[in-house]
Amino acid sequence: MLAEGVDPVAPWDKKGFKIPTGKVYSPSGMQFWPAANAIYRQNTYDNYPGARYMLHSVVEGLMVPFDTGLTIESRYFAHVLQSKEAAAMVRSLFGSMQELNKGARRPAGVPESNLKKVGVLGAGMMGAGIAYVTAKAGLEVVLIDQSQEAADKGKSYSSDLMDKAIKRKKSTPEKKEKLLSLITATTDYSALSDVDLVIEAVFEDREVKRVVTEQAEAAMPASAIYASNTSTLPITSLAEASSRPADFIGIHFFSPVDKMMLVEIILGEKTEDKATAVALDYVKAIKKTPIVVNDSRGFYTSRVVGTYVREGIMMLSDGVPAAMIENAGKMAGMPVGPLSLGDEVALDLAWKIKEATKKDLGDAYPSSGFDEILDAMVVKHERHGRKNTKGFYDYKGKDKALWPGITEITGPAKSADEFDVEELKDRLLGIQALETARVFEENCLTDVREADVGSILGFGFAPFSGGTLSYIDGIGTKEFVERCDKLAAKWGDRFAPNKQLRAMAEAGETYYGKFSPAEAVAEAAE
Fold it and tell me: How crowded is residue 428: how many other Cβ atoms within 10 Å of its Cβ?
């Protein structure tokens, strides 16, 4: 640039310079700025002060001399910097993420593992995705399935992703060839003889998982770690099929694996530090962000995101129009509405989890309108979600529209005027934050950073809030408990605050004040 010469006069200081959009109050400006504001509202729902005040800075700055415009911009910047949204987002998405990526939860004193080869059991969508990100990190992969055809199909998933990357000029044919050369698709478990880590990604069925666990452990070296990618089944119970439960751990990926940045590592009751360290080293190698949680049904992410989908379905049973539910979810800051997310996760999977929970709890299971609607959707109408193009939405390729038959199941929806949008938003975000508080009290979560980072990266919880526990702290524990009590009185006991949260509210404590990350790590180490 210097060799070519640098013009010392900025474009806007040159004689005859014209604002590209025209002056704000001009015919061309009036065509541009209202549309810009509409796009801003569509993308942010006015939840992000930074975006809001950038627009303010530009619009107001264009109506005054340039130096005055810079003053306006600097003052808006200072205003945004002092907002609770900026504080929460900087803490969670910059500070906490960096600390977790650098191994904040890695057990002390365990030598760094030198991972070279990973086995993946199951070549379905999840297993294929795991194989891809592993090979992309330069590690060898053994991809195993019941038939060679299925294993080859799993490998072809990586080929397809690389083809797309090449088309977008993000990769090259040489890189594709190198990546595919690292993946061995097979049915032969003996190929696991020299792996460092095995990741099981088969169906959510205990018997199937037991069989593959036994087959893999018979072939893999004694030094290797075994991990299950289960999203709901307790790791401790799955480890009962293992001959070495100390080396058995959960590594829960999110779909699609190549795009989702979070990995949830689950410790069973007998999991030892070596397994934890290897799991964290692996996640670091594939350049994703890890959180470490203790064992429970649904762990952290699946358990909490389930409350969001469940609350959306409960709203249907309350007579809230489906479109209003979906819009309230997005207005609250979620990436998609709860009904849409239910379709993406798969309604038949939600039904299976519901049935398993019902069986385990017996008479203690709280039946509700959620059960009736889910039973009708899955069993009666065979609407399983996006995967069979029929759920709360009808799908045609990339296009989707709410299924007109929803009211056949729920009955006619009430008028939207009968519901308060702010209350709907409180229900959808509040139930997730409250469930996180319960998970934290039960010691499934032990680090406030992981609660927040996990909620944003794992299921898109309103990023502007900083995450589920930051959401509570931002409102104030006392006020949050008061809101929950009001919702519980009106909508049911699922909103009743847990004991720890109520005690914190009475004492005026916050999560980041009471449970500092340093103390959480020290307690976990003990």
Answer: 25
Q: Are 457 and 289 in contact (CB under 8 A)?
A: yes
Residue 16, by phi and psi: left (phi above 0), alpha (psi -120 to 50) or beta? left
Dist. CA 221–CA 136, nearest whole Å: 24
Integer Cα distance of 326 and 338 in angstroms: 6
d(CA 368, CA 477): 28
Checking if the pLDDT of 141 tops 90, the result is yes
pLDDT of 518 reads: 61
Which CATH number does 117-297 carry? 3.40.50.720
Give the Cα separation of 145 and 185 in Å (integer).
8
- Residue 144, H or E segment: strand 140-144
> Over the stretch 368-409, which tens digit does the pLDDT of each residue have?
889 999 999 999 999 999 989 999 999 998 899 999 999 999
Residues 6+ apart with CB under 8 A from 15: none
**Residue tagged active-site, from 79, 252, 381, 384:** 252
Residues 428 and 419: beta-carbon distance below 8 Å: no
Residue 296 pLDDT class (50, 70, 90 cuts): confident
Confidence of residue 151 (pLDDT cuts 50, 70, 90): very high
- The pTM assigned to this predicted structure is 0.91
Give the pLDDT score at 362: 83
Question: What type of residue is 93?
Answer: L
Q: What is the DSSP secondary structure assignment for residue 377, as one 8-state letter?
A: I
Pick from 159, 143, 162: nearest CA to 151: 143
pLDDT surpasses 80 at 522:
no
Provide the token pair at 440. Answer: 């934290």
Give the pLDDT mean for 265-278: 97
Please report, in angstroms and rounded to a whole number, the separation of the first and last CA atoms in the chain: 57
Look at residue 261 in the predicted model and tell me its pLDDT.
96
Question: Which residues neighbour 490 within 8 Å (Cβ) at sequence distance 6 or greater?
Answer: none
Residue 354: pLDDT band with limits 50, 70, 90: confident
Measure Cα distances from 219 to 216, 224, 234 in Å. Answer: 5, 10, 24
Q: Are 235 and 268 in contact (CB under 8 A)?
A: yes
Q: What is the distance between the alpha carbons of residues 241 and 238, in angstroms, rounded to a whole number? A: 6
Domain ranges, ordered by start, for the chain: 11-82, 117-297
> Sign of torsion, CA 243 249 254 257?
negative
Annotation marks residue 381 as catalytic: no
- Rounded Cα distance between 90 and 68, Å, is 29
The angle at the Cα of 489, spanning 486 to 493, to the nearest 5 degrees, equals: 110
- Please report where in the chains the tokens 């072809």 appear, as a residue: 156
Distance, CA of 381 to CA of 391 (rounded, Å): 9
Q: Contact 119/183 with Cβ under 8 angstroms?
A: no
